[in-house]
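Reviewers of the previous submission asked for a worked example of the structure-prediction workflow described in the proposal, so we include one complete record here. The input consisted solely of the amino acid sequence. No template or homolog information was supplied to the procedure at any stage.
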Amino acid sequence: MPLPPTPLTRTLPARPNLDQLRRQAKELLAAFLAGQDAALVEVNAHYRDVDRAAFALHDAQLVLARSYGFGSWPKLKAYVDGVTIKRLAAAVRAGKLDQVRALLKTRPELARVGIDNHNVLHYAVLNRAPEMVRVLMEHGANAREGVYPHRDATSALTIATERGYDEIVAIIQEIEQRRRQQKSGQPSGLAPDELLRAIASGEHEQAIAMLRTDPALIHSENAEGWTPLHVAANRLNQQVVEWLLDHGANAAARGPNDLTPLEVAAHAWWDVSPQNFAAMASAMRQRGVELTARTAVAIGDADWLRARHAEGVLVNPILDSGGLLRIAVSHDRPDILELLLDFGFDPDERMRCGEGDDVEFSWGMPLWHCAGAGKYAMAEMLLKRGADPNGRVAASGDPVFQAYSQRDWKMVELLARYGGVANATTAGLYRQTALAKKMLAGEAEHRLDGVGGDTLAEQLLWG
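From that input alone, the workflow returned the following structure tokens.
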């Protein structure tokens, strides 16, 4: 019997105990070897190509760590021992270089983590601490990630440039250049920013001319890890995609979130053109590009999905913008959505969000997209399978909020039939005066979402 593919996510207690975690790992190992369903699901969700016969305690510890949101058992242990993003941020702000080095030696991924809507690299730049910047950059910090919502204008690199911190700008550029060389395997480590801009803007001929002039650009990538093929595929720029593949571009290159070029296109969530995606995907497959779960969902290949599910290897990799169910919604694949739900996928695609140590969750992305696009049949399909009409999508509200934003009263009514309730902010923001009066009079059910104040009146006013 194929396994249900929903990954499990665990939440650490306020004061985690290492001995208790070791016991959990032993219990997981025993349950997995005994063939218990929950353990099989958890292991398959967090461990690729597991060999049951060789599965040992250290493998169970790895699965447990990943369930808790850590990349490895040593990283989970380090967190329990107090190596946290809060300590790193405090050490960076205080200029304690030796302490920062020690913390990053144990958990290097913390250099890429944000806290209080800032990247730790921001603190080093604001302190004008070149050596601190160098240490953080050498451990993977992203100098081009800014503060929400003005990302580009508030990146560490932008701040250093505008303040005239030339020595910091030079360090950032030097390390970014080194990363490009290591990733691309090209001695020049070219920065393809102008090329990527041309591709993203649809300037086909100019982009191809640039590639002909300097073929090394074919294998280049920018500071975020995007290659020309990623950008061309994401823009469904079939002419450039085919040219790149015909001239040796790596179709399996992994960009941010471990996405291949075709997966980036499949994951697009605004202005999706299923027909154009299918045409481009067909051209790429003719050139040897293999399907993945994401791309199979986007093109509607139910047979491929059924085969992987029968093998017990089909899992749902969920990003901030959703997973396989959301892709099915965006690409207008109701049959695939129903198939995935039949397989047992979580209709809310609940996920842990962010890379920090605080555990926060986001859920409801598939229904949120239905609510914003007027996809009533798929919305009701999700609701009938248990999707939460009041799901909290990180930084994006809930499905009811989304329906009100579109003034889609048919969707509002559908969500209400399944328990969807507008919160105070939604009523205020979208000027629902009659609804607000009923809320204040106690005549309408409502929710408080903690934005703008503690009381109903304060949140209505804030909205």
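The radius of gyration is 24 Å. We consider this example representative of the routine output the project will generate in years two and three.
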